[in-house]
């Protein structure tokens, strides 16, 4: 068999559907899979198409990218505040911008750094939980609600941190943003436990 015929035969393999728990396979793309996690391994199909077929995962990707962009923006803001307040974390940077006397801490810079660190402590777990949660077959409306609530309240948390909004705005935003994460974690554990 020539190489082209071999590739063609591999690409003609039908879509396989793997159901979480049963580990059974079904060659019929119209099989009823009621709320079970479905993984598509279609050789020869663009991975973009496979990914976008899962609407919950596509929704997760959308909000995740927005959150990552927000983290980049906070990093840029932190750098700009350092330059404006002349408070540098490294002596060589201070020397370049006026002298070693600017090798110091500044409360505004530290506030930006805390906001960025808090984002990392919360958004990174969300990226893992949301990705796995998207694969257990959640309702699109419910999944979107989880992702949207987390996104909106993380945005509010950042605004409250950087703009020094009155307490307990920041704390409430933090707590509310944890609710969808806890919900997703519980649902993922329940889905995995039910497959044992």
How does this structure look, described?
It is built from seven helices and three strands; from the N terminus they run αβββαααααα. By secondary structure, it is mainly alpha-helical. Strands 2-1-3 form a three-stranded antiparallel β-sheet, with no helix packed on it. 21% of the residues are buried.
Topology:
Blueprint: H1 3-11, E1 17-19, E2 25-26, E3 38-40, H2 47-52, H3 55-85, H4 91-96, H5 107-134, H6 140-162, H7 169-194
Antiparallel strand pairs: 1-2, 1-3
Helix pairs in contact: 3-5, 3-6, 5-6, 5-7, 6-7
Comma- or semicolon-separated keywords:
single chain, 196 residues, mainly alpha, 3-stranded antiparallel beta sheet, 66% helix, elongated, disordered N terminus, glutathione transferase activity
Envelope shape = elongated
What does the main sheet amount to? 3 strands, antiparallel
User: Percent range for helical residues?
Assistant: 55-70%
Query: Which strand-content bin applies to the residues?
Result: under 5%
Low-confidence stretches: 1-43
Q: Tally of extended strands?
A: 3
Distance between the termini: 43 Å
Pfam families: MAPEG
Organism: Oncorhynchus mykiss
Pathway: Lipid metabolism; prostaglandin biosynthesis
Transmembrane segments: 60-78, 123-141, 147-165, 172-193
In a nutshell, what does this entry contain?
By secondary structure, this protein is mostly helical. The chain has helices at 3-11, 47-52, 55-85, 91-96, 107-134, 140-162, 169-194; strands at 17-19, 25-26, 38-40. The protein has a 3-stranded antiparallel β-sheet, with no helix packed on it.
